[in-house]
Amino acid sequence: MSEVKGQESTMSKRQNWKKIPMKKKKYRKPASKQAFANKLRKNMTSAELLLWGRLREMDGCEWEAQKVVAGYIPDFVEEGLELIVEVDGPYHRYQTRKDNIRTRNLQKRGYQVMRFQNSEILLHIDSVVSDIRQRCQEVRGLLYSSSTAYQDR
Q: Is residue 116 within 8 Å of 45, Cβ to Cβ?
């Protein structure tokens, strides 16, 4: 096989590549999910803080902030109702695919996911809380009706 001056054949490029020593990356053990959740909880955004204050006041619900659920760290979780509330900042418009996958995975595990934009929370907190309260009542009603139907058998 003839080679053009100044160019190597594909085969010789591959052979040369094998001779180049590869630098090994230093392996850095990632922090545990729980440690990361704790860090997020201590550094909430203003929208998260505002919503968190209102969720804690909600009667009949026990909300938790940044709790590890199915390998994810959602913003707010109500375990008894299997309800998750996510607060999306401006960067979420660039990761909609990732957010959709995350939502589907949580739904497969039985959770309902509600998403709100930061701006929506900051400008319309009463409406957001009303929507969440309504969903809690709907879920609670479904849980109650399914448990009584089971008891009637």
A: no
Contact status, residue 65 vs residue 52, Cβ threshold 8 Å: yes
Q: Which of 98, 74, 80, 86 is nearest to 132 (CA)?
A: 86
Instruction: List C-alpha distances in Å: 25 to 8, 22, 52, 133.
Output: 30, 9, 40, 49
| Binned average pLDDT, 10 residues per bin, the chain of 153 residues | 53 54 53 75 86 92 90 92 91 76 93 94 97 92 59 48
At 61, give phi and psi (nearest 5°). Answer: -125, 145
Instruction: Give the DSSP per-residue string, 34-50.
Output: HHHHHHHHHT--HHHHH
